[in-house]
Write a structure and sequence with these properties.
The chain is mostly beta strands. The chain has one domain: Immunoglobulin-like. It contains no helices and 8 strands. The strands form 2 sheets. Strands 1-2-6-5 form a 4-stranded antiparallel β-sheet, with no helix packed on it. A 4-stranded antiparallel β-sheet has the order 4-3-7-8, with no helix packed on it. Strand 3 and strand 4 form a beta hairpin. The radius of gyration is 13 Å and the shape is globular.
């Protein structure tokens, strides 16, 4: 069974999002070029993409601010579970921004 994306969360500093899958994920280090994340329609510079257990963590060079609209896309990569099953593409997924001013 392919890994299912259960949720996406923005960290409390605004410097990363975490994708929570229902399965342990393989190394995501080389997958950053396949993600596109925007904040208020401006692309964020992805600094690092890594995985740990069932999470894929994407770090940005600059922080997202409170109230900004964050949208996540993933396409064309080889992000897989540890069992080798591919993750589905992500299209225009809104990420909840809980940052406080």
């Amino acid at each position: 069974m392919n890994p299912r994306l259960d949720s996406v969360s923005l960290d409390t500093t605004g410097y990363s999002v975490t994708l929570h899958y229902d399965q342990a994920m393989a190394d995501a280090y080389e997958q950053s070029v396949f993600f596109r994340i925007t904040s208020n329609n401006t692309p964020l510079d992805i600094k690092l993409c890594r995985s740990t257990l069932n999470k894929v963590i994407i770090n940005f060079s600059t922080a997202v601010n409170s109230g900004e609209n964050i949208v996540l896309n993933y396409s064309g990569g080889t992000l897989n579970s540890l069992e080798g099953k591919p993750a589905s593409d992500i299209v225009n997924l809104s990420v909840k921004n809980n940052l406080r001013e």
